[in-house]
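Repro case for the chain-ordering regression, as requested:
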Amino acid sequence: MTSDTNNSEITFEDLMGQLENCVEQLEKGGISLEGAAGIYEKGMTLAAEASKRLSEADLKITSIQEKYEQAIEGGLETEGLDVKEL
Amino acid sequence: MEAVSVSEALGYLSGLLASDELLSDICIRGEVSRSTRAASGHSYFTLKDQEAALESVLFRGGIGQEHLEVGDEVLAYGRLNVYVTQGRLQLVAEYIRPSGAGELQAKFEETRERLAREGLFSESRKRKLPEFPTVVGVVTSQDAAVWLDIQRTILSRFPLVELVLAHTPVQGDEAAASIAGAISILSSCSEIDAIIIARGGGSPEDLWPFNEEVVARAIFASPVPVVSGVGHETDWSISDLVADIRASTPTMAAMMVTPDSGELMNSINFMARTMGFSVQSGITGSVNELKAKVAIMRSNMPDLSMIRVRVDELADRVLLGSRRDISRATESLEGLKNSLRFVGPRDTLERGYSIVEKSVSGEVVTDTLHVTPGDEIKITVSNGAFEGEVIRMIEDLHEA
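-- result from build under test --
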């Protein structure tokens, strides 16, 4: 198992991308049985993680004010826009 | 107080109305709520708004009869008077035109043409929405049902997403600048993948902020794709034209921004099954390959039973050959024996020859020079021997 699939920070898009890549590699063939088993295991872990995220997700809602407060706390540039104008 | 007749009272009121500057030449905006056309060619209709209603008439020859459809928002130009026969206030209209069809429509067309020339609606700049958005910005009013619809739709489709609301009024004089500001602020937030601008249905005036140039330019400047879901399916705004994607309704906008979890689950399951099949067929393939190799190896192995037969055959041949050789050798040996016997001393002695040896040394005498007279000699014949003495030498046989 590669370490990146264990990383909870990996985006859903990357998860799906890696999963599709595993499927493609296996469909293309030309890999040793040991290699295929490794890819299969990785693919199944990715599929399980993707399904888990979909079934356990809970919609997160923030307002732009909160978002900017977070950004300012994080020391990010806000391009001089005044939130209070809203 | 002196009593007046009904006619007098209403006649007086009519006079007042006719002499009033505003009421004698007025433009009234309202929705047509009832409309009938009499055989005479006059049209009778009611104008209303949320709180009041006004009976009206457009006499034959009046302009804009075709706009008197129930539900239409119109501007009616004319004068107020009293229809004395029934004691009723009415608008006598001379000219009817659709509300907003004038200025607003002209302004819409002008803005649309100008921005189109600038390339704001160009198909080539329309961007694709991300397949799996992480953060979606929403520009709408937090008090409107639309905001709840968007939340509900996204929760049911792809709850992995984070929604960031930029609350703004969506109608009124301040709305356009506020909507544009909200778009700018959201689009400056680096995490946001896409922006929805949304408003529920309303009158053309209500939806007007979404036709304002400032909103169009904010959408155009957004570095992330913008989906416009303003009004109902039949409403088209400048925002719809400049946005990367136009959704027919706010709910549809939320659907367009997000993939469907159910379909994703199916797709994930399908991919898992495909991987299983691929690995299984890989294993089957390897096993078949192995079987084929074993078969080839087997077919190339020497056949031991055949070898055994061949060895036996060779052994037989060797044995046969040896026997023949032995008998041939035996025959040769017999011949040789005979030859030997023929040349051997015994046969020779039997044929009348004898062997002479010197008695003392046993040396065989083959030359006259070997003996001198007086030498004792032994003479062997075929059946025995006897001794004698050399008496005298006789001449050489060859010389004789």
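Ordering looks correct now. The two ends of chain B are 225 Å apart (CA to CA).
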